[in-house]
Amino acid sequence: MKRQLEPNDLMLNSQRRANRAIFSAVAAGFVMLAVAAGAVVWAFERSQDYSELVTHTVEVEAAVANLNRLNERIEAARRGYLLESDPRFLETFDETAVEIPVQISRIADLTSDNPDQVKRITRFRALTDRYLSLLKDSIADKQAGGTGVTAASLLDEEDIIIVQELRKLSDEMGLAERRLLIAREASQRTSVLISTVTAAISALLLVLVAFGTIWATRRTLRALTATGLELQSLNEDLESAVTARTAELQRANAEIQRFAYIVSHDLRSPLVNVMGFTAELDAAIKPLSELIDKVEEQAPGLVTEETRYAVREDLPEAIGFIRTSTEKMDRLINAILRLSREGRRVLSPGAVDMNTLAGEVVDSLQHRIDENGVTVETEPLPTVVTDRLAVEQILSNLVENALKYLAPDRPGRITIRGRKNLGRVLIEVEDNGRGIDPRDHERIFDLFRRSGSQDQPGEGIGLAHVRALAYRLGGTISCESALGEGATFRLSLPTALAPQQGANT
């Protein structure tokens, strides 16, 4: 026995059928619209193709007409020179003789897809070469003291035959292009008609789809209103969850800072012992070496070569390696401690005059700037509400890096500039130094990671410290550079440091 449907079930089924009908109608409308749009595009492209063909034909006709004009001009220049011996006619003749082959080549390029025209232009080029040769011969004869012609007229029989043949070929090319133009204009009109009809059908379909979409949208908006109220309550719950998660992240970050501090101190204790014992071993080498010298004087046979080499070469070299490694580890531990202390420091937001701050940074590095012959330019900088000490450390690190990695083949130049952009402050430090490989633009901000030739002192801490400080200030740091072209470091900060960003994390 079938169960009788409840009113809610009937409503739900009716809603589902209505939704399917709406979806099907809108989808069908958009499919038809897509088909119509495709047809319009096709018709438009066809129309554009025909337009290009028509333009091409007109261009060929104009080129042929221009060629005829050049032929007439060169003949007129020759006649003028033969009659008047005026060098200006000769200049016109020479210029036109250069232009004619260029114009023939242009027509050949334009008609390369038309076999009949290719044949004509090939014949035209051969006749033109002969014609120009005859004209030049007549001018040469005139210059040699002759008349420039073999008959009483200015054109001999061969000249006349060639000119007639050239005009005949020119007329044939123009007529062929005119026929093509008529056919292509007819095709273009047909294409425009198809485009117009297609566009009208598309407009009608667009109106139908628009009405259907508006009706479906109004129906959907009513349902969305109810859903929005539900989402609002969910968002309130989400905000409380985000607040709780943020507190957890802050506690985790504080724990990481404490862990880094503890680890650094725990590493320092055995490191100090190693450094101390290394110093004692180094001090013991001298009396041991003196003892070896004394034994060699009194009983040379007692000291083996292996013992002598161990005391005088192996031990000092090994102690040197140990001392270098411990000193490097000591610097790394100090760097970790600095980062840890900076992470625990409470930020103190305040109005910072970036022009004054940049001047102080440059003054503090003036000795190195003068020593390296570097020019430092500071453009007007905006004021920003942030932690002054953190920004000073960022700017100092960036300028020091620019001084450290100068290009050896040109004088150093560093520019500090800034501007406000979309509610943020951008500070840029640009140099003309060695540059940085684009593959390393992100890598250089990692802790203990460096890029390029390692011929300068450093442990890869500075830029990692810069990025950590930028993040704490609610900003970002990026690099734009290429090898051999200098580098630009761009610091983006909010115009005012939010109170929660200044809290201890």
Explain this structure:
The chain is 72% helix and 9% strand. It is an alpha+beta fold and 505 residues long. It has three domains: 198 residues, Up-down Bundle (Four Helix Bundle (Hemerythrin (Met), subunit A)); 89 residues; 157 residues, Heat Shock Protein 90. α2 packs antiparallel against α3 and α8 runs antiparallel to α9. The chain is flat and about 125 Å long. The N terminus and C terminus are likely disordered. InterPro entries: BphY/WalK/GraS-like, CHASE3, HATPase_C_sf, HATPase_dom, His_kinase_dom, HisK_dim/P_dom, HisK_dim/P_sf, Sig_transdc_His_kin-like_C. This is histidine kinase. It catalyses: ATP + protein L-histidine = ADP + protein N-phospho-L-histidine. It comes from Jiella mangrovi.
Q: Could you give a quick summary of the protein structure above?
A:
By secondary structure, the chain is an alpha+beta fold. 72% of the residues lie in helices and 9% in strands.
H and E order: HHHHHEHHEEHEEHEEH
The CATH level-2 architecture of the largest domain is identified as Up-down Bundle
How far apart the termini lie comes to 68 Å
CATH topology of the largest domain: Four Helix Bundle (Hemerythrin (Met), subunit A)
Task: Supply the helix-strand structural class.
Answer: alpha+beta
- The helicity comes to over 70%
Rg from C-alpha positions? 44 Å
Transmembrane segments: 21-44, 192-216
Keywords: Kinase, Membrane, Phosphoprotein, Transferase, Transmembrane, Transmembrane helix
EC number: 2.7.13.3
Enzyme class: transferase
